[in-house]
Write a structure and sequence with these properties.
With 601 residues, the chain is of the alpha/beta class. It folds into 2 domains: 139 residues, no CATH class; 304 residues, 3-Layer(aba) Sandwich (Rossmann fold). It has 21 helices and 17 strands. The strands form 4 sheets. An 11-stranded mixed sheet has the order 15-14-13-12-7-6-4-5-2-1-17, with helices on both faces. Strands 3-16 form a two-stranded antiparallel sheet. One of its GO terms (cellular component) is cytoplasm. One of its GO terms (biological process) is poly-hydroxybutyrate biosynthetic process.
Length: 601
């Protein structure tokens, strides 16, 4: 972005002050409803505002940063001197611009930063000063953290995370009087945008039962079973934790081995069946595969004691038992996504120890089994924070789905929180109808026992990778898993980084095909060939260092889906007549997508 020429500042719209006054009164009325929605559940004791544990961790983290800078006074003095000149230059440049002179910017936003795209952030000296002062302050704050070289990596990561939350929150683009685009909208509509925005704010606090649940999507435009999760099928089995869906074939013959998909239990399975165009499940059925998928229950307090072992035995293992009885096949293919893949890997190791050979191949989508280089979520993982989460879960028996959704949003708050605050509550506009964000907001709860076990054994202690994880008295050794593995990573993944997936791929004892897709944790997986987007890389076995593999890898345009299908056929090309759901021993319970997936948190 260049500020070399001041350009023409957009004209301020004419204001109807009578209409503006009326709308301001309406806005205050809607604001009082928002306050009431916030206060009511607190007055009833339904919501606690005790954030002492969270704020205590913030204080402890920044205390260590403060200690670094105060133990040597010269450090702070040098930092102050380094940036003092830039502040002085900014003041001088702003004064000269106000007198009609042209000045190059002292600091400019990143080209990908959409907050300052409006031309007035550059053409208007006042807004340009706000923008540059904010960016300069942010730079200083970032150096305060990054230059504290005595901090351990985890503390620095937490300090950087907390700092980003603060700096993203105080950006001038987030406030009415310091955002030129919002000001123009306010004056041109005589404040109607603020009335709409405050009304949505009240609605979102009510929807969050006293907590602000920022809408990221126009939820009225979507409904599971109406325009999402549409691949025809039947629920053929259910227990306390899962419904098992078998999909109707669209080909006369199908691959001999059926496919079981194990989705993450912290999200709903239909990420793989968003709509007909994006559905991996529909595509796999069209490729002549008998597809089964697990649809996890949205648990409540009655399932608080369900353990990781319960999820494994009542989830994948129970599903495998049913599939064997339905199809008569002793061998099946499997696929797991994200933590569903971690569960699948654990199941494979458990079954290997039990000499159970019914899984013939495993595919992992953006899955970690070694958490040494785990993604940004590790910022939430240490003994204190896991302990606080366990305490929180013990009160209700589960972790609210919104807590996990908020954690994911906070990792990218500049893109997933504040743009929606501005769009919804300041501009008064409904967010776009975007299926992926609808799925993202359709959160599931996590039962206390299972989630605590997962956090401790995987993220905190990395026991699965070390061969120390134990289920029902059986130690899990991924080296004993000899089946062929297709291991998909995504290049820009901040949840399961490609390097982390690469390191984990080396733990399996059989042949592994490691593939890296373009884009991130969702788009890199849900990338149908018809869209002709992104690319993928292949480079042989995942041996040695990830960086060396990546440097030598071959880039292939388009989706990895066909590569996976070819890999599957290479391991078994046998075919049988198509299998119709309900034709075997297990009669249909209900149509897909079933009832478990429709339960709201």
């Amino acid at each position: 972005m260049s500020d070399d020429k001041p350009g023409k500042t957009p004209e301020t719209p004419a204001v109807d002050y009578e209409a503006f006054g009326k709308n301001w009164a309406k806005m205050m009325e809607e604001g009082s409803k928002a306050v009431a929605a916030y206060m009511e559940p607190r007055q009833k004791g339904e919501v606690s505002d005790d954030k002492s544990a969270e704020w205590g961790d913030v204080a402890k983290t920044f205390g260590k940063v403060y200690e670094f800078w105060t133990t040597d006074p010269n450090r702070a003095s040098e930092l102050q001197t380094a940036y003092g000149k830039q502040y002085l230059d900014l003041w001088t440049a702003t004064f000269k611009r106000m007198t009609g002179d042209t000045q190059a910017p002292i600091v400019s936003p990143d080209a990908r930063d959409k907050r300052f795209k409006d031309e007035e952030w550059s053409t208007n000296p006042f807004f340009d000063f706000l923008k540059q002062a904010y960016l300069l302050n942010t730079q200083v704050a970032q150096h305060v953290v990054s230059d504290a070289d005595t901090l351990d990596p985890h503390t620095r990561a937490k300090a950087d995370f907390y700092l980003k939350q603060f700096t993203n929150a105080v950006a001038p683009s987030n406030f009415l009087w310091s955002n030129p685009e919002v000001l123009r909208e306010t004056f041109s509509s005589n404040g109607e945008n603020l009335v709409r925005g405050m009304k949505m704010l009240a609605e979102d606090i009510v929807a969050g039962r006293g907590e602000l649940r920022i809408r990221q999507v126009d939820a009225d435009k979507f409904e599971v079973g109406r325009n999402m999760a549409l691949t025809p099928g039947k629920v053929v089995f259910q227990n306390d934790l899962i419904q098992l869906i078998q999909y109707e074939p669209t080909t006369k013959t199908v691959q001999l081995r059926p496919l079981l998909i194990v989705p993450p239990w912290i999200n709903k399975y239909y990420i793989l069946d968003l709509n007909p165009e994006k559905s991996f499940i529909r595509w796999a059925v069209e490729q002549g595969i008998t597809v089964f998928t697990i649809s996890w229950v949205n648990p409540d307090e009655t399932l608080a004691a369900k353990t990781f072992a319960d999820y494994m035995t009542e989830g994948p293992i129970a599903a495998i038992d049913v599939i064997e009885k339905i199809t008569g096949e002793k061998e099946i293919n499997t696929a797991g996504y994200c933590v569903g893949g971690t569960m699948l890997a654990s199941t494979l190791a458990y079954m290997a120890a039990k000499k159970d050979n019914r899984i013939a191949s495993a595919t992992f989508f953006a899955t970690q089994v070694d958490f040494t280089y785990a993604g940004d979520l590790k910022v939430f993982i240490d003994e204190d924070q896991v302990g606080n989460t366990e305490k929180m879960m013990s009160e209700k028996g589960y972790l609210e789905g919104s807590r996990m959704a908020n954690a994911f949003n906070m990792l990218r708050s500049q893109e997933l929180i504040w743009p929606y605050v501005v769009n919804n509550y300041l501009k008064g506009k409904q967010p776009m109808a975007f299926d992926l964000l609808y799925w993202n907001s359709d959160a599931t709860r996590m039962p206390a026992a299972n989630h605590a076990y997962y956090l401790r054994n995987c993220y905190l202690d990395n026991k699965l990778a070390k061969g120390e994880m134990e289920i029902n008295g059986v130690k899990l050794d991924l080296g004993k898993v000899k089946v062929p593995v297709y291991n998909l990573a995504t290049k820009e993944d901040h949840i399961a980084p490609a390097k982390s997936v690469f390191v984990g791929a080396q733990l399996f004892g059989g042949p592994v095909r490691y593939v890296m897709s373009g884009s991130g944790h969702i788009a890199g997986v849900v990338n149908p060939p018809s869209l002709k987007k992104y690319q993928y890389w292949t480079g042989g076995k995942p041996d040695g260092e990830f960086e060396a593999w990546q440097a030598k890898a071959t880039e292939i345009p388009g989706s990895w889906w066909h590569d996976w299908r070819d890999w599957l056929v290479d391991h078994d090309a046998s075919e049988v007549p198509a299998r119709v759901p309900g034709a075997g021993k297990f009669k249909p319970i209900e149509d897909a997508p079933g009832s478990y997936v429709k339960a709201k948190a």
